[in-house]
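hiii so my PI (J.) wants the whole complex modelled not just the main chain, which honestly fair. so below is everything: two entries, each one labled with what it is. i double checked the lines twice but i was tired so who knows lol
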Amino acid sequence: MNLEITLTEEGNQSIITLAGEIDAYTAPDLKETFGIVTKKAGQEVIVDLEHVTYMDSTGLGLFIGALKSTKENDSELKLVNLQDRVYRLFQITGLDEIMDIKAAIRGGNE
Amino acid sequence: MENFFKEKADEYKKLLAEYIEFQDEKALYGVELVSKAFIKHNILPEEIVNIHIKALKELYPDLFASFEHSLDFLLEAMISYGLAHQEIQNLREQQIALKSEISVAAQMQKTLLKTKKPDIAGLDIGVISVPANQMNGDYYSFLQNLDGTIGIAMADVIGKGVPAALCMSMIKYSLDSLPKESTPPPVILGNLNRVVERNTESNMFITMMYGEYNPETGKLVYSFAGHEPGYYYCADEDRFTEFSTAGLVLGVSEDVEYEQAEIEIAKNDMIVLMTDGVTECRDGDRFIEIDEVFDVIRQYLHLSAQDMVQEVYRYFERLQDFQLQDDFSLLILRKTV
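here's the output for the full assembly
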């Protein structure tokens, strides 16, 4: 299974749209993308996980790494549109308490 | 080597002459053997073409020039294949070396992380831990305190393989250095969190559950650090209930206060602990839901705790498209008195 990574830059916003599965095999590319966008001070990095169907603990590690990088570089990280299964991982690990995370909204727009 | 080369080149020439004259199968079989001997001695493809050219020139000195040139051309074309072949050969050797090194490390890890299942009257303990690859990133341990209480630790390092395994040694040594006294689980997790935070890379973390069970009272005091919830099985009601406490995984933030909660279990009740390798099991594209795990446990309630955990694993192993995604650990503790 693959992971499609689309990066859109708008002003001081970097929107990363992901589709597929995040695991040990697909993680390296995403790690690289995170490494670049989180290093710009003042940058707001928004990760859209609507089409991420599966994520394992390697994926969680990436998000922790990205979060630490935003803290060091004075940028921001936001996760949006998480599916239940992926959201559960962030809840169990307690990461939803220290990260800006929004689950997928069912039944229409916000 | 030089002798070998000359000998085989002569043989090649002889077989070639024979084939050109009679086109017999025997010569073809002969060249197959020669070719295999060449491969075994790492003779490259372009060298074989070269042998062919030389043999042909010796056999037929009057070959017309354009054919001769075409053979030189072929020789050049084979050189890249030769290089690629050599590279594969090197990689193959390296792979064998690495594999044996990892298996030595895996063996060493097994010895290092070995933990003894305590033998306690009135308590039936079963535990299984299966690595997805050679090395295991899951860890469980039992600590026997002087006051009779038992510490139960279950942990899962993010990721798999060698880095995860190395990281786990840290947890083991920290646990081993604890005094043999009853200690509140949040204190233990807090200490471990600082150790992990200081000693790992930014994207490394460990999920962990630590509990202290008192065999006399049947009380389990516990604390979770981002770990998969545990389940309490009430035998009277034949029901599983989830238990956990909120808490961040170890190694992310330096100052984390962990929470504590407790449950009391009665005769025949069970405590079930696991790592995400169990909840992330997949049968092809289908995810295994926790209720399916419960159903399997229920099927084997009549067995000992150890047989139970083994049967649960076997059940998943038997699923048609089952593939272990992550290290799989399952621990069952049953009160028998």
